[in-house]
Amino acid sequence: MPPDPVAIFEAQRPRLLRLAYRMLGSHAEAEDVVQDAFLRWHGAAGVENPPAWLTRTVSRLCLDQMKSARMRRETYPGTWLPEPLIEPEDDTLRPDNLTLSLMMALERLSPLERAAFLLHDVFGQPLDEVATTIERSPSATRQLASRARAHVQIDRPRYDVPRDKGEELARAFFEACRSGDPAVLGAMLAEGASLHADGGGKVHSYPNVITGADNLLRLFTSLARKFGDGMEFLEATIIDGLPGYVSRVGGVLQTTALEISEGRITAIYITRNPDKLTGITRH
């Protein structure tokens, strides 16, 4: 009996979705791309290496999509953040170690740099296969990946936080925000901490990045006075590799991810755009 093409594709679907999401930063766009690849797969014949063919097809579709996505983000209202990816509870199911902060760094790359870096450094494709996928020479592909690596500084020290410790810190940060206790908040924030908030023009948010512990302290104490009783903690979780939580503030659903270095919060990523939270509407 010949192999079932649907079964072959479905076995690859989780990996293809993750690749497309890492390329595009959008679950909906990733699903559309993978569905397009599925239709093309049905029309293909004589494919000797299905995983490589599917990876190449999804990558090229993403490259086409990324050109228009960059234009859309130039006119995006306020700060743009990738759609939050709620990680599985079993850490062994995470096939890559990208965090939300590194996803933001990828936004500085050209589409070809991003593709070369993700395919080679993150998804482990041999350089010659990557070159075929992006239709560049191996030497040009090597340079693209090298430039990307330098831009995202992937070799900088990382401070991994165990899941239980991350959940504990996320809950503590939420409680400090709700109470507006400046002493507790000040002890948790690094001096150069920054806040990135994505409302997409749909709900109230902060259009610009807010930097500095003092500025954040003033912001959070003000929010506590205004919304403290209307802050509802829903669950602690891992969001794109970072400790975080899902909550409601003033009735608006949001996710908060925390980048931590040496025990202090260095960056806070808040997503409030309802279009990016459709997968969390069960709350």
Using only CA atoms, what is the Rg? 20 Å
- Gross geometry: elongated
Strand order of the largest sheet: 2-1-6-5-4-3
Q: Strand tally, please?
A: 6
Portion in beta strands: 15-25%
User: Roughly what is the average pLDDT, rounded to an integer?
Assistant: 88
Largest sheet report: 6 strands, mixed
Count of alpha and pi helical runs: 10
Helix content: 40-55%
Task: Describe what this molecule looks like in 3D.
This protein has helices at residues 5-24, 27-42, 50-74, 100-106, 111-122, 127-134, 138-152, 163-179, 182-188, 213-227, and strands at residues 189-198, 210-211, 231-239, 242-249, 252-261, 264-271. By secondary structure, the chain is of the alpha+beta class. A six-stranded mixed sheet has the order 2-1-6-5-4-3. Helix 3 (50-74) packs across helix 6. The longest helix is centred in the first third of the chain and has 25 residues, at 50-74. 37% of the residues are buried.
